[in-house]
Design a protein that fits this description.
The chain is α+β, with helices and mostly antiparallel strands. The protein is built from 12 helices and 28 strands.
Amino acid sequence: MAVTYKKTVVKGFPRVGEKITRDTLYWKNFEFPVTKKEYGAVSYIDFCPVKPYDYAITSSGRVQIYNGGSSTIDKTISKFREVAYCGTFRNDGRLLVAGGDDPNIKLFDVSTKSLLRAFRGHTAPVHLTKFMSDNLHIISGSDDKTVRIWDLPTEQEVISYSEHKDHIRCGCASQASRDIAITGGYDHLVKLFDTRMDSSVLTVDHGYPVESVLMFPSGGTFISAGGNFIKVWSALSGGKLLASVSNHHKTVTSLCFSSDCKRLLSGSLDRHVKIYDISTYQVVHTLDYPGSILSVGISPDDSLLAVGLADGLLSIQHRKEPEDRDAKLIKKNLKEKKKARPYRYDLSGKNYVQTNEEFVPKQQKNQLAKYDEYFRKFEYTKALDAAFHIYVRRRYPEVTISVLQELIRRRGIKAALAGRDEKSLEPILRFAQKNISNPKYMSTLIDISLLLTDMYSSQIGHSTIIDDLFLSLQRTISQETLFMKQMMQTLGTMDILFAASTSQLSEGMSTMNIDPIAPSENADSLRL
């Protein structure tokens, strides 16, 4: 009877990764991003509130309107002398307003791309242009530090505010009231205006130049973003700060709500889009992009996510459509048809009955990995070389560790490590230097490092490559030792604090004649 070879057992380690939640599954359910190259930095993205949810991309000296279904350019509005800013749809999707370096505010008919109105009055570039909720007025903010309200039919200025002390870069109108709007500027201030009043009714200090503001549909709460902070304010409580979060490493440039306003999306110069749960303001998911983010927009049904980058790239992602039952049945039937055999083939040999004498069991070939093949022949040096192949040691380091442990168990580790030159010793030292700080591999690699030091100490000083590798390994071990010492000191300090708090609690209970070990006996006295 042939003796079968027992394969090397590869030790498995638990993988630490992103926790799979409903938000993770929901926000990962997008197709691979489609990238478009614009003429300049994509400074603003706005989705039309009505189907098919077309979206306007403001970039360089034009506003381009993309089709919400095919993500192709339907219309291009380029009637700007210089750079355009803040191209925004009206609630019905029929009109679009935009500002620019030219201080005039321009109103366009979306269907014909014709210029309908030009509002003149600002003396500096206009970065804020939004429709009020009544669709009959426009709010604008400019680098001339003024906020103005304009009347669409008469093309006249209704009211002007000059309260900001620096450039105004963002703002939005309340959906709950046709008279309420908020603006943010580089003076760190967020101001709430009521068009029925001659001055602002509320001012809060964000602490950083304000890049983006949002107001909840109810109108009682608004959000400001600037620096690497996002702050939530209560308009009903006189500007009370409700929450402050700082999960970005660089300036937050854009904010937007999801379809149900239960999730907040923020884009930043740190190349991340973070998604927050509105109830707790905790990050539930993060999306990565190849460049600094200037604008973020999502369709009203969450089916399309568009992100504009500072280098002129536009990233477009469509949500994957779930396959219906009929489509799955069609695919299943097609697979069965491919597997179906011809009728003639099914009839041939239909009445044939096989006897036990004719039955020959199929012997499955036991495929072995290269290192197992060498282990089978007791060629330990070649087995170690196979485990340290560049693909194996980088992609599956646990396999390399398992082979080292098997060599130690077989007492062949010295024979496998002996007699090596620079070329064959280099990958072993590099692997040890890279992974010795990993708790999963630390114990094995410490033994291997000590063994290598004993075996090749006589060669240190004769090879520059080997010397550098041993020095790198020494620095890594010294750094890890320092970290462990600091950690033990921290743990000792925490133990002292815990012991002090426990003793104070025990003294407090003793003064109250309460036994801390049996609290149930004194429950009645505590209630009294």
